[in-house]
Amino acid sequence: MHLHKYEKIWLTFGLGSLALFLIIIGFAAFWKGTHPMSHIETIDPQNVEAHESFKPENLGLREVADGKYTVNIVASAFNYDFGTDADGKPVKKIRVPKGSTVLFQITTKDVVHGFQVAGTNVNMMVEPGHVSRLETVMKNAGEFTVVCNEYCGIGHHQMFATVEVFE
Ligand SMILES: [Cu+2]
After folding, report:
1. Which pTM value belongs to this model?
2. In sequence order, which residues have a C-beta less than 8 Å from that of residue 163 and are 6 or more positions away?
3. Which residues have their alpha-adjacent CB atom under 5 A from ion ligand 1?
4. What's the gap in Å between 5 CA and the centre of ligand 1?
5. 51 C-alpha vs ligand 1 centroid, how far in Å?
6. Is the pLDDT at 37 greater than 70, yes or no?
């Protein structure tokens, strides 16, 4: 079979790009730990408080075992509810030690939101009617901004919080 020179170049380019993108996906999945969320568990978005994890008193950071934490969050337009602190003020910053394992559990009461902890592999879509979960190890110290990366309305830019990983 005779192939024209330009056709050979084009085929090489096409197959090369395919190989490159597969390598990038493999790197993201196996090295960086980026995986799709499960979305297996459903929840009534009108009544998220009925779920044990999303009762107002169970929101926010909790140490469940030595070096293991759970963070329960309810997203709504335009806020992340991490519960309240001892003074009754809304929590906007959570602190965990470096190297700890953190399970983020989040749901939404209204529309689709995002939950990305910029600079880590935590990046979830939060859909009404579903519980999004992601467990990760906080390998690097620093302050990481939580942002909503799904446009959810006029106050979208006001949805943020901070995760501080200390040494
Ligand atoms: Cu948003």
Report:
1. 0.78
2. 93, 94, 95, 96, 117, 120, 138, 143, 144, 146
3. 148, 152, 156
4. 50
5. 23
6. no
